[in-house]
């Protein structure tokens, strides 16, 4: 396979929302789920987010547990997985946690719509930048590039648009969902998979692999793609 093994991990409410209508990164995961996510990151070669998440939420994408970071180092790996951002226009702030938090390689895939000045700034900050001349980043080429730079296991942490596009293109192997016992509502609140959507006959078929019921009221669902 000329791309990494790729899985999407998401925390969502019982009504399928991954954030409130405010889109400010509302907390959904329980403490136990935060630990599960940390273990997933520690076991991955890279963690990827889409443009809205990258630019508006400024994610750290680091391994929180010192013990897990130390274990990665013992394995001959960096303390944190590679941080990967995908944005048509990469107007990321220089003080963003994506750039500054933790010891990690940083990679951004963008397009020529990002100004040359901004591209130079990012590279000066130690970010590896790949520029697509097309209107949008070619996600299939991106996956091949990630494989070439040593990413064998890729964790995707949203948001809904990048999730949908990766699944639409058949670039996802596994879907992990923490369903929290709460409801956000809101017609404009983002969901696990946004984007243009499918017609009914185009719907992606999933195979339920595993279910875990937690004492905190949450449920873990693990799906494979048929």
Describe the protein's architecture and organization:
The chain contains 7 helices and 9 strands. Strand 8 and strand 9 form a beta hairpin. The mean pLDDT is 96. The protein has a single domain (5-225), classed as Dihydrofolate Reductase, subunit A, CATH 3.40.430. The longest helix is centred in the N-terminal third of the chain and has 12 residues, at 31-42. It is globular, with a radius of gyration of 17 Å. The chain is an alpha/beta fold. The two termini are 17 Å apart. The chain has helices at 31-42, 51-57, 66-74, 97-100, 116-124, 139-148, 160-168, and strands at residues 5-13, 46-49, 82-86, 106-111, 127-132, 153-156, 174-180, 206-213, 219-225. It has a 9-stranded mixed sheet with strand order 5-4-3-2-6-1-7-9-8.
Task: Give a quick summary of the entry.
This protein is α/β, with parallel strands linked by helices and 226 residues long. It has helices at residues 31-42, 51-57, 66-74, 97-100, 116-124, 139-148, 160-168; strands spanning 5-13, 46-49, 82-86, 106-111, 127-132, 153-156, 174-180, 206-213, 219-225. 27% of the residues lie in helices and 25% in strands.
Characteristics of this structure?
226 residues, alpha/beta, Dihydrofolate Reductase, subunit A, nine-stranded mixed sheet, 7 helices, 9 strands
């Amino acid at each position: 396979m000329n791309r990494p093994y790729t899985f999407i991990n998401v925390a969502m409410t019982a009504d399928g929302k991954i954030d409130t209508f405010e889109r400010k990164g509302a907390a959904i995961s329980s403490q136990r789920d935060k630990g599960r996510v940390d273990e997933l990151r520690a076991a991955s070669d890279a963690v990827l987010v889409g443009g809205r998440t990258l630019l508006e939420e400024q994610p750290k994408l680091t391994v929180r547990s010192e013990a897990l970071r130390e274990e990665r180092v013992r394995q001959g790996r960096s303390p944190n997985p590679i941080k990967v951002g995908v944005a048509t226009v990469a107007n990321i702030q220089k003080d963003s946690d994506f750039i500054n938090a933790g010891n990690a390689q940083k990679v951004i895939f963008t397009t020529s719509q990002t100004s040359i000045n901004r591209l130079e700034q990012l590279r000066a900050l130690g970010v590896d930048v790949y520029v697509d001349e097309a209107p949008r980043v070619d996600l299939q080429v991106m996956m091949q590039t990630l494989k070439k730079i040593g990413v064998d296991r890729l964790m995707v942490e949203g948001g809904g648009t990048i999730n949908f596009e990766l699944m639409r293109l058949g670039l996802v192997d596994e879907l992990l969902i923490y369903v929290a016992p709460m409801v956000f509502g809101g017609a404009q609140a983002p969901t696990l998979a946004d984007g243009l959507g499918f017609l009914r006959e185009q719907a992606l078929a999933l195979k339920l692999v595993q279910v875990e019921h937690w004492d905190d009221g949450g449920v873990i669902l693990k799906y494979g793609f048929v």
